[in-house]
Amino acid sequence: MKFKLILFALLFSLSSIAQNKATITGLLSDKDNSNLPLQFANAGIKGKNIGVTTDEKGKYTLKIEPGNYTLVFSFVGYESVEVAITAKANETLTINKALGSGGYKLEDVKIQKVTNREKETALLQEQKKAIEIKQSIGAQEMSRKGVSDVEEGLTKITGITKVESRGLFVRGLEDRYNFLLVNDLQTPSNTPFKKIIPLDLFPTDIVGVLNIYKTFNPNISGDFAGATVNIETTQAKSVTKLSVGVGYTTNNNGEDFLISSDANSSKGFLGMVANDRKLPSFYGTIPSAVKPTPDQYKEGFNNNTWNVDETSSPINTSIGILHSEKFNLKNGNSINYILSLNGENKYVIRKGVDRTFLQGLGNYDNNFYKEDYKYQTQSSSLLGVKFKAKRYDIGLTSFYLRSTESKIQDQLGYTNNLSSNPNILIRLNQFEQSDYFNTQLLGNLKLTSDGKHTIKGGYSFVKTAFQQPDRKFIVGEKVSETEINTSYGGNHLNRQYLDVKGNYYYSALLEYNWKFNEKENKKSSRLAIGYNIFENDLSSTYRILAGQRVINKNYTAPINTLDNNIIDDINNGILAFREESNADYKVKLNQMVQAGYANIFWNFSDKLEVNGGVRIENSKVILKYRNFSDIIENPYSKVNKDKLYVLPSVNAKFSLNDKNNLRFSSSKTITRPVTMELLPVSYISADGKSELGNKDLKDSENLNIDLKYELFPSDKELFVIGVFGKQINNPIERVFIAGAGGSGQLTTYKNSKEATLFGAEIELLFQLNRISKSLSDFSFGFNTSLMTTNVDVEFGSNSLENQKSRELQGASKWIINSDLKYEFEFNEVMKNTLSLVYGVYGDRIFAVGGSGVDHIYEKPFHKLDLVWTSKLSKKIDAKLAFDNILNPEYKLELGNNSTIPVIEDSKLMESNKRGTGISLNISYTF
Fold it and tell me: Are the CB atoms for 39 and 715 separated by under 8 Å?
């Protein structure tokens, strides 16, 4: 009863407040276009944080407190109009206005358009007008869907799925088939294990628009098969915002947690322990079988321990600060700046089976139950300054991305097919850090005042660093909950130091544009001629220390406090850490790609537009390495690759009418391997697994074709159906083969002969008021990709392949993404959006099988999220998100088509559950 009375009182209060307000409404029209309704124009109160945009009919409505105000109407590229008004309580004031371009030129529209491009409706209109096949998601839509980072935002695009720790899959194709641009400039990855930067490092605060190109154009990199992602960093607006967030995930937070003792500290909380784990200087820069004395060991490893702390995982936290400002100068010039700082930490626990099969046999080689405990930190900062004049603009943007992970991994079971001893414990203690610093200079210049001749240019310099300092293993037999029995030798007390240093990376672009043949509809044809270049120079070192026994010793000790035993045995001359790196410890890679291109956009008529061109790309790769058996001082062996690619493309759009388009695209592109797929580095683990790059990998060459029909029933609705096909020569694939001696599992990469892909896509954005007026606040989005693939492989006596043909590794047969949106208001200020988001992908080959053992398949993963975003007041926004509500099991399974008998009961190779998360983010705008 009390609750009902309180609710009634609140409703009565809100009603009373609403009744005292004035209503301002009207229609805005386009003076330069026969006074047609002006959609997406701005209507607001000058000096107040009150404003709306017009709907598809050009209508706006404002509710304000009584008083004297200045009403401001504006639209991109049009002159603003101000009207002085007196608003009276409970009265409606109707003001209609026509806006015109006045002294503004068409080129001004293009420059200023970026601001509004962050809105969903504006991006949908851009997609409708574009000649190429692309999709975009802006800051507005990402905010509505509760998206906190770029990677999550891209999963809202048709045909894109996210796989934990493995990045984005586009049209079923994995990370290696994608490419990343930042503000149109090519950029490297921060990790050698991925083709592009893990996009969850980019918080949405620093992103204005994400553009996803699913068809190739000559002005983007020829390294294209799945998609090219172009991140446009956010444009400065007058805003200062503080955001804080907390998160809890079942089976991850509030649980027993293992963390390395050196990471369980203030420095560790910030992820700043890499320096304490670096290789001691007495080992030198060149491996030389150094065996340190006890005093050297004490000094060199003073802040680095084998011990692990048992603790509890607290909640995840995040914080972000955004400040930007714009200043209008004389003569219509302006300058703006933006500063963004973001940081977060997260506790992750994964538990499940971890198995491998013996190649050529139907029984397990490894059979473990694995527990991972990962403490992760991420931080980013962005500083941007832009000056804009009438004929030119120039901007400088710098951003820094940093991620760390402190990981403890316990594997309990048996290895090397020794099922008679199922209590072997292998502990991995690993710290990983990546640093990425990118500075960009971008500019646009109008060579003529009418904007028909323009030049744009940009330069980017990037420094990257990836390291896993002191990646160490403990191996023994678990004899109790807290103790192991062990002896020195083998993989026990193995220490590894992986350091991939980006010496330098630079990229540049220069493009000339000429507009000509302007038609009555104001559309022009355009010629673009440009030049791109990037050079990537990096070196990799992989040093290995082994705990060598001087005197045989077998002992039992607590697994979490083994450091004391190790130090005692070093001091007593029983144990020593000697370097056992081989000649292949260091690899150098230099890659330079230069490209020239010409691209013409021809406006044949009101209905037909064609974009055709060619990109000529020269790729040079110099790989320096030594073989495992070489002498360390020997000169490097070299692999030189120098190839010229001619990459034509054509994109065409035929407008059936204002709401219907037909699109066609055809192109030739290439796919370059991921860095670690190419480097001849043998990355090993104590459980017998290893990964080895293939220096002889070739670039894949791709033929692409797309056909698509689009229907835009309204400014907020979309229906698309399309088909696509690809032929990939020399596709790059992940394969498993037996390790040395027939035991263990080696992951490597190879070129198959040829792959073909055929698929279809369907996308739908639907306002549910078409079903019933009572559903006017609801909308539904759905997209799916269906695909079939076939790979022709080398098959015969010298091949490990089981069949002559199969599906393409990493490609799903189908993908589904959908979302249901409900928008509602508690009052004029408290606007809310509730989004239910679902995604799932079909079976796909994780790794190609061989020697009679079938492929390993990644099984479907159903992800359901619920996001509630709310404007609590004019200055406070909130986001409440429920993540992975269904909490399904992530699984890798052996297929059912092995040609040899499989004697094990379970074909489950790997499994874990992520848990269901709940997070709350509050932001305050000053």
Answer: yes
pTM score above 0.85: no
Of the candidates 593, 850, 642, the one whose C-alpha atom is nearest the C-alpha of residue 734 is 850
Question: What are the E-state strand segments in 296-446?
Answer: 308-312, 316-328, 334-357, 364-388, 392-414, 424-446
Token pair of 375, please? 């403490």
Q: What share of the chain is helix, strand, coil (3-state, %, to 5)?
A: 10, 55, 35
CA distance 408 to 212: 37
Q: Alpha-carbon dihedral of residues 75, 79, 84, 86, nearest 10 degrees?
A: -20
What are the residues facing 515 on neighbouring strands? 526
C-beta of residue 918 within 8 angstroms of C-beta of residue 882: yes
Residue-wise pLDDT tens digits, 250-299: 999 999 999 999 999 999 999 999 999 999 999 999 998 888 999 999 89
Q: By three-state DSSP, how is residue 347 classified?
A: strand
For residue 692, give Cα distances in angstroms to 589, 680, 695.
16, 6, 9
Using CA atoms, how far apart are residues 610 and 132, in angstroms rounded to an integer?
9
- Asked whether the predicted pLDDT for residue 90 surpasses 80, the reply is yes
Alpha carbon distance 668, 220 (integer Å): 13
What value, to the nearest 5°, has the Cα angle with vertex 143 and ends 139 and 146? 140
Query: Which residues touch 464 (CB under 8 Å, ≥6 apart)?
Result: 188, 189, 190, 434, 435, 436, 437, 501, 502, 505, 538
What are the φ/ψ torsions at residue 768 (nearest 5 degrees)?
A: -75, -5
Location of structure tokens 């851009």: 126
pLDDT above 70 as % of the chain: 87
